[in-house]
Amino acid sequence: MIAGKIGAATATAALPSFRTGDERLIKLTGDAGKKVTSLLTRQGRPQGVLRVAVVGGGCSGLQYKMDLQDQPQNRDILVESAGVRVVVDPKSALYVTGSELDYVDALTEGGFKVKNPNAATSCSCGESFSA
């Protein structure tokens, strides 16, 4: 009987509990969506998610961190945009609400770019911001 309870608790704990949001939280452009889809496919995670987080660091105090993962985690907010599932933790959501993620394919100044209306200032390299 005890083993049954432990197994049931473990099975329940294995399923992440997340909320669903919309593109008012974060939106991907078509180019960003294509690039993320390509990266997920290349990693063998076609059903994976893009995690966007805000962490301390950089010249202006805060910086973006992006990672490809298999699924949302507990307490995440899941948004579908440009054919990609994007997850944001509740703390980071305070900083990225209304942001747009773009991808620029260029030799210089290329890569993912975040247009964040909450950023009060940003550094000259565009990699960090303050809110």
Task: Describe the protein.
This protein is of the alpha/beta class and 131 residues long. The protein has a single domain (2-130), classed as Hypothetical Protein Aq_1857, Chain: A (Sandwich), CATH 2.60.300.12. Helices cover 25% and strands 36% of the residues. It contains three helices and ten strands, in the order αββαββββαββββ. The protein has helices at residues 2-14, 30-42, 90-96; strands at residues 19-20, 26-28, 49-56, 62-69, 77-81, 84-88, 99-104, 111-115, 121-122, 128-130. A seven-stranded mixed beta sheet has the order 1-5-6-3-4-10-9. A hairpin with a 6-residue loop joins strand 7 and strand 8 (111-115). The chain is globular, with a radius of gyration of 17 Å. The N and C termini lie far apart (53 Å). Mean pLDDT is 87; it is low at 1-10.
